[in-house]
Amino acid sequence: MKHRPTPTGLPQHRFPVDRWRLVETEYDDNDLGVTESLFALGNGYLGMRANPEEGRNAHSHGTFLNGFHETWEIKHAEEAYGFATTGQTIVNVPDGKLMKLYVDDEPLLLGTADLTEYERSIDFRAGVLRRDLLWRTPSGNRVKVSSTRLVSLVHRHLAMMTIEITPLDAPAPIVVSSQLLNRQDGEDEYHVRSAALGEGKDPRKASKFTERVLEPRLQQREEGSVVLGYRCRNSGMTLACGYWNHVDAACETRIETTLEDDIAKSVITAHPDAGETVTITKFVSYHTSRGVPPEELADRCARTLRRAADEGGARLVAEQGQWLGDYWAASDIELRGNDGDQQALRWNLFQLAQASARTHEQGIAAKAVTAGGYDGHYFWDTEVYVAPFLAYNNPEAARKVMRFRWKMLDAARQRASMLSERGALYPWRTINGEEASAYYAAGTAQYHINAAVVFALRRYLDATGDVEFLAHEGAEMLIETARLWADLGFYATNGSDSFHIHRVTGPDEYTTVVNDNTYTNVMARFNLRYAARTVRFLAEWNPEQFAHVQRSTGLDIGELDEWDAAADAMYIPFDNDLEIHPQDSEFLDLEPWDWDGVAADKYPLLLNYHPLVIYRHQVLKQADVVLAMFLRGEHFSEEQKRRNFDYYDPITTGDSSLSACVQSIVAAGVGYEDLAVDYFRQALYLDLCDLHGNTSDGVHIASAGGVWAGIVYGFAGMVERGDRMEFAPRLPAVWDSVTFHLTRHGSRVRVELDHDGCTLTLADGLGVPVGIEDRIHVVTADEPLRIER
């Protein structure tokens, strides 16, 4: 990645280093989109961008609910059979973050306010976004304003905000307008479109919406709660959202509430003396469904709010801290020797927690719930980059991710049938299970998503030993994905009896619709072999359940032999002259890319060159063969890994956020320590330093998973063998030591890396098998295992 400089970390004058927090000490409205993503909160279901409570200024307002989407007709310039027909876009749901503040009838607007003190921080152990201001109002009086925001990692449908206002110099009239505003359909409380959407940028342009999305269905006020209900015009999904305000003040206060179709507003007035504090606590709740009436969702919403108000905000904060305490005990990576890298590492791990805590058998989108980037679609990102982290740190969340894919099997079967194939073909990008990629060459043609799903399944089964899941869901996924490969490929007629897969696209989207893509063939071979072996295991271990799977899938036992035969005959391209694996059968015949003649500002290439120009050249968007060597490393010799890496690394642009972490892992494995560290930091600071210029569109959650993988698979050299783990420690000189934990089959092992090797100690549970050369050792609390470098 010649055009990408090595990141040096955040500018410390504005973002000081703190090993457990992300802290901002200077307000700047020039990068609002980036900071709205970096300080965003979420729990896997509910996500809130870090827009100010006052509503303005903002780059793009956003509150998102995992899977809650609208559909629209995809209009192709030229139609063809099998093209995706229905687009799916996550909906920007009504914004409950708004708590507009007026003191002496003057609004607090950060962009113009006279702020003598400012700090915003997100604490990774508390899970709370906090902002503290000292504001000198236009009348000259100082007012202290402190606010917090929490999206519950314990309660799926609940968020909480607080604001404390303290006039310091003199009594002052205070007004807080607490609101729930439907921004998706384009107006603020005064019917100003640009103010509702943020800087006049209409998000419907990107989302293909040409008409109203959320149709009002109810406005409800009872006891202390206010609830609005909606139905999506096309998808039919339903939503209820509401809030409950609690005011704590020594002075007299008054609340006036009004409801309209697109806004609920409670205006709170008070007149505290100097030194008196007015505290407002706001509970916000969201409930969605694919068809339950909004009236029922409104009842659920009101119950959630009532329970939260009864239990109080202090309990919510305590539960949040307890949940994160358990999370960090299992998932923390302690890095010593560079506090900036430690801060960035924990920020990435915190994003993984926020993306997965309360998905409840929904997918994890490419941007999780931090923004509407990629329309809120699920890709293979989750299975390859996030699911392994979950498998070894939060097995229950990993299981839910796998059940999400299992529940999509019927839609995947239909997609395979449309493409004239047997089995199931998982969609390249989707929310509801249907393919939503309008550009098939870089979308549907990426059949390798099937193997990604099976790769994640194997990671989960190896890490947990959950044979019950294999019996009831996993086997069905294995059978249908293997069938797809067996039917898609064909045996050569030139007498070689090799098995080929044509007209597919690998992970590198700068080379599309090719024959025998090395990555695809390697992963298809894995998929076929693993399916055959595992289904045979099920037949022996649980004949009754195997018979059930046979009936439900129509499996002929002879298919297993066909899968093994196809895997054994799979053609894996190899060039004897260069002694490398070509990316596909014709890749080495393409024209080399003119690296010296292309300016750095022309990257990413997809935004500056027609696809045909890119497709004609040997230039990669992301690691492809290199990724195959990471995921299926046992099938490549050490010499092949080095020669492949040496060939492909210089021609990889890294235009994809999925690339740097993989290049780091493989670079570490082939002995390129400095390069491994460089690529690792590319991934580590990808969002924090906005290296791709699009963090404003949301956090790259797959890269965050890749950061974890860079430590565990890259620098610790962990390999999962099914019956044991193996390690090849190679801690770089830039750090003093690294410590992390892995949970395997219910036991937790601590791995401590130093420059001479690593030490493994059982932290909890039964012994963990670890291989050294040809011998398996059992790591226990009494018998740690030392592995020398």
Structural class: alpha+beta
Task: Give the fraction of residues assigned to helices.
Answer: 25-40%
- Strand percent estimate: 15-25%
Whole-number mean pLDDT: 95
Query: Unreliable segments (pLDDT under 50, ≥5 consecutive)?
Result: 199-206
**Overall radius of gyration:** 27 Å
Task: Please specify the SSE layout and strand pairing.
Blueprint: E1 21-24, H1 32-38, E2 41-42, E3 46-48, E4 63-73, E5 86-92, E6 99-103, E7 106-107, E8 114-123, E9 128-136, E10 142-151, E11 158-167, E12 174-181, H2 193-197, H3 204-207, E13 214-222, E14 225-232, E15 238-248, E16 253-259, E17 263-270, E18 278-289, H4 294-311, H5 313-331, E19 333-336, H6 339-356, H7 381-393, H8 395-407, H9 409-418, H10 449-464, H11 467-488, E20 490-491, E21 499-500, H12 518-541, H13 543-553, H14 558-569, E22 591-592, H15 611-615, E23 617-618, H16 625-631, H17 638-648, H18 659-669, H19 673-684, H20 701-715, E24 719-720, E25 725-726, E26 737-744, E27 747-754, E28 757-764, E29 768-772, E30 775-779, E31 785-788
Parallel strand pairs: 22-23, 25-29
Antiparallel strand pairs: 1-8, 2-3, 3-4, 4-5, 6-7, 6-12, 8-9, 9-10, 10-11, 11-18, 12-17, 13-14, 14-15, 15-18, 16-17, 19-26, 20-21, 24-25, 26-27, 27-28, 28-31, 29-30
Helix pairs in contact: 6-20, 7-8, 7-10, 7-20, 8-10, 8-11, 10-11, 10-12, 11-12, 11-13, 11-14, 12-13, 12-14, 12-16, 16-18, 18-19, 18-20, 19-20
